[in-house]
Design brief:
Blueprint (H helix, E strand, L loop, with lengths): L1 H9 L4 H18 L4 H20 L3 H14 L8 H20 L3 H21 L4 H20 L3 H21 L6
Helix pairs in contact: 2-3, 3-4, 3-5, 4-5, 5-6, 5-7, 6-7, 7-8
């Protein structure tokens, strides 16, 4: 994280401004084309990138706002493309991390649960997309950590077991990843 921050510090000082302008342009595009899945996907990608930079620079309140706007932009729908659903899962996972870092444990737990729902939807629809299983296991593990912070030891244990099963399934599908 320190190296990432140093790399950001060496960048153009207006980088965050440029990134924000890009996010704003994507938001306008998504607003102009509310039924366009690709516009939503591009907007969520831009929002996720902006939030990542905000997190790296220590602007957790800004990242929370950006991620919440991204979440609000694209409520879950059965008609969503897999790409949009995956991005939504990534947004929810990052939002949960921000909540956990800001000691909003209950909010973090809810966001991780919602992210897992998105990942499970993709895993059921397209089990061959292996990266989803990895993202799902990561969210399950982070949810378990969050449950432990909340003092919920038994649900945390069950969540870790679920993460273990997810990783085992991934290894069955791609044995070359065992290393």
């Amino acid at each position: 994280r320190i190296r990432a921050r140093a790399a950001l510090d060496r960048q153009d000082p207006k980088m965050l401004d440029y990134l924000q302008k890009s996010v704003d342009a994507h938001r306008r595009l998504a607003a102009a084309l509310p039924d366009d899945s690709q516009a939503k996907t591009q907007t969520l990608s831009a929002e996720l990138m902006a939030a990542s930079v905000q997190i790296l620079t220590g602007d957790l309140p800004g990242a929370e706002k950006t991620l919440q706007q991204a979440k609000d932009l694209s409520p879950a729908s059965p008609d969503d493309s897999l790409a949009l659903t995956r991005l939504r899962g990534l947004v929810l996972t990052e939002l949960a991390r921000v909540y956990r870092r800001r000691d909003h444990v209950a909010a973090a737990e809810a966001e991780y649960q919602e992210a897992l729902s998105a990942y499970k939807k993709i895993a059921l629809a397209s089990p061959e997309i292996l990266v989803i299983h990895l993202e799902m296991a990561r969210a399950e593990t982070e949810l378990a950590r969050t449950l432990l912070l909340a003092g919920k030891k038994e649900p945390a244990r069950k969540q870790l077991e679920s993460a273990r099963r997810t990783i085992q399934e991934l290894l069955k599908k791609e044995p070359a990843n065992e290393d």
